[in-house]
Amino acid sequence: AAGVIQSPRHLIKEKRETATLKCYPIPRHDTVYWYQQGPGQDPQFLISFYEKMQSDKGSIPDRFSAQQFSDYHSELNMSSLELGDSALYFCASRLQNTEAFFGQGTRLTVV
Amino acid sequence: AQSVTQLDSQVPVFEEAPVELRCNYSSSVSVYLFWYVQYPNQGLQLLLKYLSGSTLVKGINGFEAEFNKSQTSFHLRKPSVHISDTAEYFCAVSPRRAGNMLTFGGGTRLMVKP
Fold this sequence. Notes:
The structure holds two protein chains of two kinds. Chain A is built from no helices and eleven strands. By secondary structure, chain A is mainly β. In chain B, strands 2, 5, 6, 10, 11 and 12 form a six-stranded mixed β-sheet that branches. In chain B, a hairpin with a 5-residue loop joins strand 7 and strand 8.
């Protein structure tokens, strides 16, 4: 069965650079979530989209933005990267009120 | 708003012993409840879920959990653990509304010793 696909799996960027993370949800899923997980921490909610419209917003810095496209894939754009942005970034998708399925994550390292 | 508390940050246990990982939540609305497992450097995998119906739910890998509405708890149990169960376990809740986000607890590291 198709799963949530995230790319790239690993990304190394320098401070003040920009990064774009991509997420391809499971087909027909109507909700996409983005989470940030720092080392040894629980996943922190960043932002979500329901039917391509932003539905909830969590602790997402102003330097970050996200959108969901007509084909339902989503992108998380991160600018002016800081060392503290180094983390595992997860995308998850969900159909209505069922469980969320998570991708393998993108490990971002800012140096 | 919802919050999830996992009372134990680490649970050491010997192989083949039973284990219980505790989860309590608070919410002003009805919620769905989930347990996810995360192996090192991997994504989150669903263990089990409570959406409605029987309060005792069974999941993968021999895990089960019981929803207790009066105590607002959703504890995870396994009667006999294996070395391969060593991982981080996250309890999560989501309001019963389409598109709503999952809120995670702080996680419990299960360490199974031989």
